Queue: 2 jobs
Job 1
Amino acid sequence: MRLDHPAAPNSPHERPAAGHATAVAHPNIALIKYWGKRDDHLILPASDSLSMTLDVFSTTTTVRLAPEAAADQVTLNDTPAADEPYRRVTAFLDLVRERARRAERAVVDTRNTVPTGAGLASSASGFAALAVAATAAYGLRLDATELSRLARRGSGSASRSIFGGFALWHAGRGTGADADLSSYAEPLPVGDLDAALVIAIVDAGPKAVSSRVGMRRTVETSPLYRPWVESSRADLTEMRAALLRGDLEAVGEIAERNALGMHATMLAARPAVRYMAPATLAVLDSVLRLRQDGVAAYATMDAGPNVKVLCAGADADRVARTLRSVASRTYIARRGPGACLRTEDGR
Ligand code: DP6
């Protein structure tokens, strides 16, 4: 049995503001998907989700308080952020300031190691790193659960990137403040499981519909949405048991059907939300062929055309080699660490 904890401080006190802090976080890929909110403002999901945090494509974020500044300044890979990305970061900093009872604006510098144009979302690692760095800079001492709840307010999937390994994000109960308290991620115990995710890039362009917009349209218009949420509950129960047994084939089967079901709900939205491209289907065909050849490989897709293929660590090179005939690039990811503060000496 294995638990991965974030290197987060543990007692929920305020502490003197550090003034500046740097944090590192990694993206996660959901094996049971989050698709649809029951509260857009508090970012409360319609159902529980479950993910694996990766050991690649980290985000490093530094937050520095700027007492003289009139507005927050946000830089993303050396480019000043504007519009929606800027507003999402400042709205998130407002939550931190309110909690810390401080008013100073901040300078935020974020760097993603995800290859530019790989078409992979970085909001999960981005808001997890921002939650850890901003709370430290503003002098809040939050435990991992509180950090996860806070990161959720930036982007739902960020709640899971606070933790390394496998994490379960609870949808929470009820509405309003109670629901806010009960919706957070936690690390999941898993059996002896050597899992890898091979990331097959088929299209590096920006997506036509953001996940935020796509999920809202699906909830509001897809007749298949409710049935998917119901089946996702059953998938989650089976997935937890499969993870505990260390049963990679069952984990893969459940993850694949859950993702395909999510894409089916989107296709039934009005108008349809379609992230899959012809090349996505070519990768899915390759994955089927790998299985016919006896390799346990299973696909999952998010709000984009790229495919992530779950397989045993020992098979990852073979899977990546096979997928290279249909994908423009492949990357191999394994289980990665939770979000953590970086110390002065860079560790
Ligand atoms: C398809 O967490 O990016 O990747 O909460 O609106 O910021 P917001 O959405 P986001 O959605 C992720 C959706 C997904 C599935 C998943 O990660 O569970």
Note: Residues 1-13 have pLDDT under 50 and may be disordered.
Job 2
Amino acid sequence: MILKKKYGERAENFSNKAARELLSLIDRKKTNLSLALDVTTKREFLEIADKAGPYICLLKTHIDILVDFDQDLIEQLKELKTKHDFMIFEDRKFADIGNTVKHQYSKGIYKISEWADITNAHPLPGDGIVSGLKEVGLSLGRGLLLLAEMSSKGSLATGTYTEAAIEMARRHKDFVIGFIAGRKLISDDDKDDFIVMSPGVGLDVSMDGLGQQYRTPRNVILESGSDIIIVGRGIYGSGKDIAVEAQRYRDAGWEAYSQRLMN
Ligand code: S5P
């Protein structure tokens, strides 16, 4: 799949602050790797984030799985963000009506909108979910991804559902910066530009026993035209050297992108 523009050059296609920052960061740091940091203790979380930090553009969190979450974790996460120059994506997968998600985004224990540059939502409830999140996030310079597809076996997010997600994103271009999907969803010649992030990426295994399906960085970036690989257990799975694996995925992702530019 041919690539007409480099990441950094695409920044001007977006009015959204988080999208512009992310695309520039990817170019500056030369990495299209996002780490999915699904561990359940603060100690592991901070240790892995510090080790993988130099190799990633985006740290993806599931903040509600931490058993010992506290405000200090957020403070330390922000320090790591500055130290290593990455952005933060809370994978909250909002899925309720606008009024509810507005509170879930800004209030409660986690106050996601205060520290997460990017979050995501299922388009399932209709446009109200985007409007609700936008009321909170836009003025803070945040960006939203819509889950247009999922990597898990039997996902219902296909066909007309995926098409409807794209149309929803087009109606909210100021706040919706892209998609969770397995492939590029709209052409380079389209008037709109969206960042595609793909989970379900692994170099060593093809599934996890609970429905997750893995493809390689090459499949995802070069052959399917996605922009960012999201890798979790491939990097911090048992016995792995975090820095070595993070570098390996960073290199594989960047190599796939470089080949796409040359094609
Ligand atoms: O369709 C999806 C969407 C997401 S955001 N499939 C996914 O796996 N994810 C997330 O990506 C999932 O919640 C997890 O945090 C990460 C994949 O982790 P891994 O350990 O399987 O690489």
Note: The chain has a mean pLDDT of 97.
